[in-house]
Amino acid sequence: MLIRFRDPAAPRPSEITPEATWLDRRRFLASGAGLALAGFAGTWGLASRPAAAAAPEDFAPLPEVGRSPLSTDEEANSFQEIATYNNFYEFGTAKEDPARYARALKTSPWTIQVDGACARPGTLDADALITSPLLEERIYRLRCVEAWSMVIPWVGIPLAKVLDRFEPLGDARYVAFETLHDPRQMPGQRSRVLDWPYREGLRLDEARHPLTILAVGLYGRVMPNQNGAPARLIVPWKYGFKSIKSIVRITFTVDEPPTSWAVSAPREYGFYANVNPTVDHPRWSQARERRIGEWGRRDTLMFNGYADQVTSLYAGMDLARFY
Ligand code: MTE
User: Fold this and answer.
1) Which DSSP state fits 309?
2) Type and span of the H or E element at 148
3) Which residue from 88, 107, 195 has its CB within 8 A of the most atoms of ligand 1, so it is best to mutate?
């Protein structure tokens, strides 16, 4: 196993984007030509305001961690791109809203309640997670249902290691996740764009798959609020909306739990949400995607390029029906 150590404070080559290039990219995005689609929930406007700035130095460094063999070798997006082009409806529906409005969210102290069908219900202290010896860097592709993608160097803990501490019972088949519900801190929750709190869920075998992590940082730093501090899910073979942010509750369930996007638009978003270029969204094709920062489009890969690792999870399932 190849483990590379690095100075978490040192920027990666991909982070050092010449400013002119970066400005060009931002202008491309702001022009609207670069926006893959106007329409996740039909509420999207074209981004016309300048992006908020974000610098890695504003976020505390995490302990040095090893890079996982499960990481992709593709070039990562810049910190700026990752921390200023976000979906986090609790802070607004425009891509630059989370970087603007999530700053005031208080992420410490922060407790995650773990309950449901498990032998040892309890809590997780988010501050303890960021010093865990189990932390590792996972450079993953993230493919959003809106047909754009990024490559992000997350830092996190395999979710299986977290879940197993609570000893799920034999009849637990699913895991449900919930984001904080606090309209005073999350102004987007004053609008009824979704039925709050944001909810997501996985089958227990998906949640325990080695690719699935509970992420607490990126680029060697603690998680920016706009990316889901203090802890969020990352499930790299599924559309980005499965990767729920700012989690406060994890519940083991016997039945498939309701999930926010499937409740809000069941014809458009299913429980599985596996990246699948052969199953179109009812309003657009999923065959291609735009990597943020690139011109043109690339083909979308089955299971977002993680087919070798996850295809067996869905043996015998009709993926057009279970979308
Ligand atoms: N989690 C919550 N609580 N609220 C959200 O609006 N958006 C999802 C997901 N997690 C969302 C969320 C969507 S649609 C995507 S694509 C990813 O977060 C985006 O993650 P990023 O902003 O860190 O790239």
Assistant:
1) H
2) strand 148-158
3) 88
